[in-house]
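User: I'm putting together a teaching handout on how sequence relates to shape, and I'd like one worked example. Could you take STAS domain-containing protein from Halobacillus naozhouensis, show the sequence you're using, and then write out its predicted structure as tokens right after it?

Assistant: Happy to. First the sequence, then the structure tokens directly below it.
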Amino acid sequence: MVNNYNLDSSTFNSLKTVSKKMFAAISKQLNVNTAYITKKSETEMTVLSSYNHDEEIIPEGYSVEYGGTYCRLIIMNENNALNKANLTKDEVTRQLEVTDQLQVKGFLGVTLMDLNGEVFGTLCVMDKEEKEFSEKDREYLKSMADILSHIIELDQTKYNMTFLNVPIIPITKGISILTLQGIIDSYRAEKIMQEVLSYSAEHQIDYFIIDVSGLVILDDFFPHVIVDLVKALQVMGIETIITGITPEIARHDGSNKQLIFSKVKTVPNLESALEYIGFYLLEK
């Protein structure tokens, strides 16, 4: 399966965080030492996140060629699962090099998919002792995989949003526009600050127009990054003009005066911003 999103393993921060919180419960419920998630690429399986209760069996980053993995057997199985009481005695798994390397016996794994039904990898548990896993155990692990599918969707969405996070539009030499839409969380705020300042220095910007007409104020929280960005641009000698202030933003700033105290120029729309700079829009 080709990863349509082309995310590398380091991108799945939410999946790693959530899975680590789930692994201890999974380990206790199924009475196993190790629980882990793998991510499938075209040629190999890589352990994205792992938990080892007593003895480290599977470290994070552990990678095996796809053809020689238990994961291949899981994904190829019509039930999308593999249940073995003793890997070293099973006719198929005992021949795999990974079985000799890991020296594990009890194993249960299920296919991990995204919400589009595409194979992401696997969710597995293993132990150095023989383990008889029941159908109930398999259903339990499958339910955990279903939960993680939603987290995969979250990481994929965040990845795609990075291409829309900082839409900078050049107008002419020294003048550019930043259009901010939707909700700005801490991750997006950091990216906005970093990219706008880098862009400004690289392109020798004199005026930056920031349009906030599409900004969403959530839980009465005004994104402080806008004020910080204005101040940083001022330090760099760049004048900032804010357009598109909605009644909601105006009411909010009327209370906390973040934009007022930053002494930033505000105008109703883009045309007014360009006129302030010295440009005029002429009808053809």
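A couple of points you could highlight for students: The chain has two domains: 9-161, 168-277. The chain has a mean pLDDT of 86.
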